[in-house]
Write a structure and sequence with these properties.
Blueprint (H helix, E strand, L loop, with lengths): L1 H7 L6 E2 L6 E2 L12 E4 L2 E5 L11 E2 L1 E2 L7
Parallel strand pairs: 1-6
Antiparallel strand pairs: 1-2, 3-4, 3-5
Length: about 70
Amino acid sequence: MIGAALTALGKKVFRYMSKYNEPRGIFCAIGRCTDCVMEVNGNPNVRTCITPVVKGMVINTQKGLGMWDG
């Protein structure tokens, strides 16, 4: 999973909350909470703890609630 791969590489902050800009990372690791959401391939709010890694993915730290294109 994306979250496990990033954690293994030492990344601890996956997103920043919108109201107080507090950092968040892996918490439950089973897809129940939203602490691990990141922007993946331009799509916000992807739960990285349950999303498999695919070669060529573009993964970015999410700021706030995320912005959808379009």
